[in-house]
Amino acid sequence: METHYRTCNICEALCGIEIQHEGENIISIKGDEKDPLSRGHICPKAVALQDFYFDEDRLKSPLKKTENGFEEISWDEAFKITVSKFKEIQKAHGNDAVAIFLGNPNAHNMGNLLFLRPFLKELKTRSRFSASSVDQMPHHVAAQEMLGHTLLNPVPDLDRTNYLLIMGANPIVSNGSMMSSPDIGKRLRSIQDRGGKIVVIDPRRTETANKADDHLFIKPETDVLFILALIHVLFEKGKIRLQHLIESVSGIEEIESIVKEYSPEYVAPLIGIEAEKIRAIALGMADADKAVLYSRMGLSTQTFGGLCLWLTNVFNILNGNFDREGGMMFPSPAIDPITFSPKKGKPKHKSVLLSRVRKLPKYLGEIPSSSLADEIETEGEGQIKALFCVAGNPVLSVPNGTKVEKAFEKLDFLVCSDIYLTETSRHADIIFPATSGLEISQYDITFLNLAIRNIAKYSPPMFPKKGNTMHDWEILDELTARLKGEKRSGLTPEMYVEMALQMSPYAKQGLNLKKLKEHPHGIDLGPLRTCLKERIQTDDEIIVLAPNVFLDDLKRLATSINSEKGQNDFPFQMIGRRVLRQHNTWTHNSHRLSKGKNECTLMIHPADAARLNIDSGEHVSVTSRVGEIKAETKVTDEIMEGVVSLPQGFGASKKSNMKIAAAQNSVSINDLTDDLRIDLLTGNAAVNGVRVKILKLEQSNATA
Ligand SMILES: Nc1nc2c(c(=O)[nH]1)N[C@H]1C(S)=C(S)[C@@H](COP(=O)(O)OP(=O)(O)OC[C@H]3O[C@@H](n4cnc5c(=O)[nH]c(N)nc54)[C@H](O)[C@@H]3O)O[C@H]1N2
Ligand SMILES: Nc1nc2c(c(=O)[nH]1)N[C@H]1C(S)=C(S)[C@@H](COP(=O)(O)OP(=O)(O)OC[C@H]3O[C@@H](n4cnc5c(=O)[nH]c(N)nc54)[C@H](O)[C@@H]3O)O[C@H]1N2
Ligand code: SF4
Ligand SMILES: [Mo]
Where are the alpha helices (DSSP H) in 194-319? Predict the structure, then answer.
């Protein structure tokens, strides 16, 4: 029997796993007790890594669409067709006519991250989209505007804080996001064991809220008012303390004048939380020496996502808990993406570019994914004619997925890299079959830069490539070479890691790839430490507390307050949720993860259900401006009155080749979310707070 150690690359938690196997026969997958970050923790999804590897439905050969369905072709033919199509379309319509969509798994795969850069350089397209604009773009915008670099994203120092305020995140289920913190349950309990406090602000009493000391319901999309009121209280009670950043912050007066009008008494009726409670939280955090406000998905994917994430930083800074033990801190990763694109000394604040059709902001050089369909459908210079979708499933993951799917029919050429024939890739002309989690080598470049301890870890591949698949990085390297008309680069992800480690601040301590290979559980580089002075990228190394883009956006907030738009036709606000046993759209074909009760239910409050005469288990139709779905209800007081919740990532189509997933009859929340609902400041989709109406279905209409 052999034992293989690696990091699970499904979600951001970075759990170390121990796999016992005899050749291809897996005997067990367990948590690696010796992993310095995860300390033996895993979730049910890690065990399913074997299901994705062995899945019969998985793609095992390049495919070409023909009149008689998909046909297997050689890699050479797949590359030839793709590159000649790209070239032909770019020649006829310009470089931007070939677009790229990057899905979430790219961030979990070092090969993709490393080889996308040269590929994009060669493809020369400005039509770039990714899952980031349906997720965390506001975090990047706040980082760029305040600290000078999109990747300077602070993480809560969970292991040392004494007051954790969680807004719009459910880490007990998601295992943490923009905060790689495996074993989150124990870590939260430790806060309480050392006398600390956890408070959750969420329109749903979530699994995390159930473990917290306090949970407060908040009306969806009003969080920005809550945070403004917290800051108001800090000023009012003379609690501003900048600690070691006292000489390093500009714009305090502007913030003071802004928050004046947002007293707890003013915001309370708008957000649904009593003024007294708001004051108690602000003062509780001011008086705790180590306190941190952590905001995530629920705040970044709403109409005021940018303001929410900006004010989250502002609150943590003014409360003396930024770049300091127990507050928001910055990892000092061994491979630091910022060293590869330092901005210091360069002129900042070029104004942000706008997208062609809807004139939306293009942060990170990306067009907001909510406008993908528009950019395909709208004629004129720069219209998208071809799309390369790498590890993405926008038909299920982007707002108004039905519109995205229809737009795909207008494309001259769609090519996808995926492990499955999905709701998206089934429309492709060419599909590249990629390797999955157990077949790749991994050094987690993205998430070790978001981890709550400094760690370095490398995992070699465990299994050979399945069937006639290729690694994503090989696909990208081959495409780059053929676009250039040259031979493959000869580089491997390991070579990049080796080079990056040579430039690392830890190189002096002897950290290199050889050493990482000798330490399969990973190497602990210690707790987070104060380091912003070295890492900040603004020209004068000053934190900009009040950037103009945010100040300007406050006007949009002011006009939206008290606006009753749409409430009569669509009386409910819909929010999303995640389930422990699935990850986004792609894990639903694991029988292990998909068995059991239907998790794709519409949660509704008992008072609302009574008014509509609905019981748990009955079916309703849910309609928004853009679409309608049918769903089974779950009547529960864990959701706020007036709010309903559907999980994200569901809705596998019978037309995909994922038989287990398709048999579940689930629905896609993104058939209801609205591509026009967007945070205009950052371009991020507002998938939370969507206005819907609900109708009870008679028995005969109820088969969803
Ligand atoms: N309404 C609503 N919409 C949401 C969200 C929400 O909360 N509510 N969440 C958003 C968030 S946070 C995210 S990150 C996005 C995710 O959106 P996407 O990234 O579009 O979707 P995923 O399901 O993560 O996976 C994309 C595809 O990658 C394939 N895949 C998996 N592993 C690999 C691999 O190693 N290589 C290759 N080539 N392919 C692979 C999968 O089969 C799948 O088809 O969805 C967003 N959409
Ligand atoms: N099991 C599992 N884990 C995952 C994933 C998965 O699909 N399954 N996906 C991974 C990905 S890609 C990501 S980005 C992370 C996301 O990780 P989290 O940010 O923890 O995401 P969610 O669980 O969607 O939690 C969002 C919370 O925001 C709340 N919310 C919605 N609207 C509002 C609002 O207006 N205000 C407030 N205050 N709260 C609101 C919702 O009720 C929900 O509890 O999870 C990752 N981990
Ligand atoms: S929590 Fe995330 S990283 Fe850990 S085992 Fe589960 S899916 Fe893998
Ligand atoms: Mo995400």
Answer: 207-211, 223-236, 252-259, 264-271, 275-287, 297-300, 305-318
